[in-house]
Structures are given as C-alpha cells and as structure tokens.
Design goal:
single chain, alpha/beta, two-stranded antiparallel sheet, 9 helices, globular
Length: 308
C-alpha cells in the first residue's frame, strides 16, 4: 500500500535557468529556486521515491499520456524561448511500473490514458526546470504527465487526478509526490514588451484575480474555487487551461478537500504571468466530491475556445 506524501502547485519559469547564468538576470529568480530546493528537501524528509509532474508544456490533442520511460538524459533547448533555455543538461531515472499503474487505474475509472515506457520522448520544461533544482542528484524517479490538454474536459482531469491517487495508495509499494507545474494567470507580455514586464503581471485585473485565488487556497475555500475553475482558466488565461490544477485538486479530493495551502515562494510576476510555489497538505479523502464524467457546457472546449 503506497502513500501520497506531498502535493504542490509549482512554477517552472525559464528565467530560473537564466538566473543561474552570468548576465543581467543573474540571481533574479533565487527565491523561486529556493522554493524548489525546499520542496525537494521536504520530499526527501517524507521518504518520497517518485515525483509525478503534471506538465503544462506537454501539449496533447487526444487522450491523457504518461511518460514513464526507465530513464531520461539529454540536452534541452526550449522551442518557445530558446534565448531563455538553451542546451540545459538534464538526467534522472523514470518509473515505468508506477506509470503503468497510473494509466491502468485511470482507464478503469473511465479516463482514457496511455502510458509510454518504451519511448524516446523526453519531458518538457515544465518537468525539467523543477527537477533541475529538486532532483539534481537524481535522488527521485520521475513520471511526467501531459497537462496542456487541447480537447479535454476539466472534469476528466480531476477524475484523472483521483484515479492516480487511488493507484498510488491501492497498488503502489512506495511514496509519491505530485506537482501541478504551471502558472496562475498566463498572459504573456505583448511582443516587444517582455523586458518591461519581466517582473510584472500583464494587467491589474489578472493580478487581483490571482491574488484572490491564492487567498482562497490559503483559506480552504475549495467548493468555491472548484466551481469557478473553468471560468478562471478561461478569463484568467490559465496555463494549460489549468488542467494541471484540476488534476492536483482531483488527487486531493476536489471540492471536499479541506487542507490550507502553504506558500513557499510568494506570488510573483514573470514576463506578464503570475507564478507561485505552494504546498497543499494531503488529507484523507474518499473521492465522493470528484466531478462526474458528464461535463458541463462551461467546461472543456467551450472554455478553451473563448480564449482563442
């Protein structure tokens, strides 16, 4: 019988990598890096053997996908921001057995999911950046999960999260942490204005919306937050349409979750987007609040389309 020991919503801003390098951005994201180091320290303290990352940079157009290759190694350059992340070395072990368990349980619970253990596919930087600071010594195995879901219902992402928890607790012999790797609001600065917004949020509306959401998390207002999530994902420009957040909350019990978020790295602006590192205590849940498979009209593609 396994254990879900730690859950968190984390940043993966590529300026963290720039912060390591000589130049004008050197040291400017040390608070975010320190937050990752602290979360990694807590994982070690709790005996975590595998980290599962819901990665909002892994775009998929059908199904949910789990990258559970035996190991990952290489150099990564971002196709989105090659001037931020270029030739960043990465390497850590995977966990094929856990990845297959996660997919099997999700399918059994009606969420179509594919696990890939014999693959040359490497993780995206929503996984690679956090692992650089939490897992530089390759202490943890890593499983990456697609969370930039282009034609998916948020309901199903919540159900996926709950299925993953059931797989961990019912079928896995080990200790796991799960991370929703993505921002809050994700409205990048308009082209040509990126330097001006390097440490700012794109608009006062988005900043106040994000700050209110963080307050709700800290006050455990989960029924209200889960109810507003589809509209927040749409009107708040949520990264990956906030499927990572739906997965995380699903694993924690959705609207029945009763934990209070702990802020590890306070909310900050990055190229117009809203970022945070926050730990969500794992509390006992029975899954009865997880949304049904039948999604509402406000969910899924209609919410996505309103952003395009």
């Amino acid at each position: 019988m396994g254990k879900l020991a730690l859950a968190a919503k984390i940043t993966h801003v590529p300026s963290m990598y720039l912060s390591e390098l000589p130049g004008p951005r050197h040291g400017t994201r040390q608070d975010a890096i320190d937050g990752h180091v602290e979360i990694g320290r807590r994982c070690r303290e709790l005996g975590v053997d595998t980290i599962v990352v819901f990665d909002t940079h892994w775009l998929v157009n059908a199904n949910y996908h789990v990258n559970c290759a035996p190991s990952f190694e290489g150099l990564y350059t971002s196709n989105e921001l090659p001037h931020f992340i270029s030739n960043m070395r990465f390497g850590f072990p995977g966990n094929p057995a856990l990845g297959q368990m996660l997919a099997k349980k999700a399918n059994a619970m009606g969420v179509e999911t594919l696990a890939h253990d014999a693959t040359t596919l490497n993780p995206e930087y929503g996984t690679l950046v956090p692992m650089r600071y939490m897992n530089g010594d390759r202490h943890f195995k890593v499983v990456s999960v697609s969370a930039l879901c282009m034609a998916h219902y948020l309901n199903d992402s919540a159900r996926l999260g709950w299925a993953f928890r059931r797989a961990i607790e019912d079928d896995y012999d080990g200790t796991v942490a799960i991370f929703a790797s993505g921002s809050l609001s994700h409205r990048f600065a308009q082209n040509g204005l990126a330097p001006e917004f390097a440490f700012r949020i794109w608009s006062p509306f988005l900043e106040q919306l994000d700050r209110e959401v963080v307050r709700m998390w800290c006050d455990a207002q989960w029924p209200a937050f889960c109810g507003m999530l589809p509209e927040y994902a749409s009107k708040g420009h949520g990264e990956g349409f906030m499927h990572d957040t739906a997965m995380l909350l699903g694993a924690l019990g959705w609207s029945a979750y009763d934990g209070r978020a702990e802020i590890v790295t306070p909310y900050f602006g990055a190229s117009g987007t809203g970022q945070i590192n926050a730990v969500f205590p794992v509390t006992p849940q029975d899954g009865r609040a997880i949304p049904p498979a039948q999604a509402s009209a406000a969910d899924g593609y209609t919410a996505i389309a309103s952003r395009l």
